[in-house]
Amino acid sequence: MCLSPNILPAFEQLNLYEELMKFSKISRLNTFYTDKLKLIGKAEATNSEHIGYDRILFPRPELYELLFKQIPKEKIRLAKKVMSFQQNHEGIMLRFSDNTTIHGDILVGADGAHSSVRQHLYKTLEKQGLLPRSDTKHMNKGYISLVGTTDALDPKKYPSLTLPEAENSFIIGDKNTPYTWVTFTVPGNKICWCIIVQLGLTEIADEQFRSSDWVPQQNQKMMDLIRHFKTTYGTMGDLFDATPVERISKVYFEDMLFETWNHGRTVLIGDGIGAGAVNAMQDAVILANCLFDIMPTSYDNIKAALQEYKDQRFDYIKEQYSTSHASAKLQYGHTFSERIFRYIVFNWLPDSVIGAQLVKDSAYRPQANFLPEAPKRGTAPVLPQKPSRRLQEEAAKRSAAI
């Protein structure tokens, strides 16, 4: 998993940045190869001198553990599948598959591309004639991937493990395969790997997509098919054999820019576009800012806050939509036009243009506006953030009292 400068200030603001860096490696360069390990090109991933932060890579379980440690255990309830919910002026009630219910003021659906919260909300709105037609369409077929992290490996066999920065390799299969496979080194002498399958190219790819849950047997079937794929460390099979089954998981790269993000007491985050974890985390930061400003917690104020969240995020996400598509085509695309695009980027695009785009892409760095801001790093400009209305009002009241 990778995080960019667009969210790292929020981690620093929460005093989690240093701990995050303990299990991360800096990623400054991506190297692209053919399936025969012939060099395609190299791409700069960040420019910390101007931007102030590096792009970092790490195993997903390490981040999960870091975040879980910040939450009281009694706040987390596992094995709860949302079946339905009802909301009105008084509150919202969720019903789970085990026939239990829970009541609250606000429901935040943060459950991914196939969100059960979104599906139930959309069904309800569609019956009421309130759902835009664009939100009734199926999501675009994009990519699915299998990701894993090895156990600690022998640095003598894999000397690049000892390098201070991550070694990132994107290996793109030939025109007859839907696969791209990626490896990168992380602390602890481990290698993270990712198999990306481009949908709509072959029957085997679409067969994997139609399977809603990848059970270990299905994972193994796919892994057996690609064990022979070459990497800079040997074969993918060598990495599979060093990876415990509990560290292998599925990730969807489907995407769609939904118009409906909120209704009543319900709001969706991390669900507007298939643009990775950073956008989902930015959603959470902006939503937290809007929730903090709810005073008092009336139904109308809640609705206004959830709409404010969408208003602050939607234009940015819309702008990122094309950027996300272009990045996916560059890194994972197998069609003829995508291969031409990759050739142009690596052979004709000036480094100055790439550097300027990196600076521009890193300017949006939302933080919690109710906490002290993390100090600005780097020389590149950072977009201003909307201040907390609640804190402004409280400051005005204090000034008036004096």
From TrEMBL:
Superkingdom of source: Eukaryota
Compositionally skewed regions (Basic and acidic residues) per UniProt: 390-402
GO MF: monooxygenase activity
Family annotation (InterPro entries): FAD/NAD-bd_sf (IPR036188), FAD_mOase_fung (IPR050562)
Region annotated Disordered, chain positions: 373-402
Membrane spanning residue stretches: none
Entry-linked PANTHER family: FAD-BINDING DOMAIN-CONTAINING PROTEIN-RELATED (PTHR47356:SF2), FAD-DEPENDENT MONOOXYGENASE ASQG-RELATED (PTHR47356)
Record protein name field: FAD-binding domain-containing protein
Native species: Linnemannia gamsii
